[in-house]
Amino acid sequence: MERKINIGNKEIRLKSSLFTMIAYKNQFGTDLFQDVSKMDVKEDKETQDVSGVIQVLFQIIYVLNKPFNDVSFDEFLNQFDFEILTDTNSLTKAMQVIGELLGSAKNKQNNKTPYKGTKPYTNK
Fold first, then answer.
1. Residue 117 domain-assigned (yes or no)
2. What residue numbers bound the domain in which 99 lies?
């Protein structure tokens, strides 16, 4: 699935596929869906880890943009001015698009029941 977002007056193409999970783990060493859950901003939470949310957001954007842009993560981040952090509308929209791109895969992962009551074949 492909989508486009605008951040810092830049149009960024995003593409999700099965490889997205592998590319994310290879690049950042953490599980994509565990990191996505860190972006769940709770309004009643007194001390939200904003820098952690921003980091995960841009890591995900980077991996989803990787099929269209062969630069390092540092080079990717250097394309943006610090002031984009004040553009909450663009960042919120980016989070929504990421949710759409990854949401169906996350829901499938959470709802699967491995082996449906049977044991996997083992050759002993």
1. no
2. 2-104
**Residue 11 belongs to some domain of the structure:** yes
Gap between the Cα atoms of 54 and 56, Å rounded: 6
The model carries a pTM of 0.78
- Is there a domain that residue 116 lies in? no
pLDDT in tens, 65-106: 999 999 999 999 999 998 888 898 999 999 999 999 987 555
Q: How many domains does the chain have?
A: 1
Q: What's the CA gap between 58 and 51, in Å, rounded?
A: 11
User: Which amino acid is residue 45, in one-letter code?
Assistant: K
CB contact at 8 A, 11 and 2: no
R_g (Cα) of the chain, nearest Å: 17
User: Is position 111 within any domain?
Assistant: no
Exposure b/e, 82-115, CB count within 10 A at least 16 = b: eebeebeebbeebbebbeebbeebeeeeeeeeee
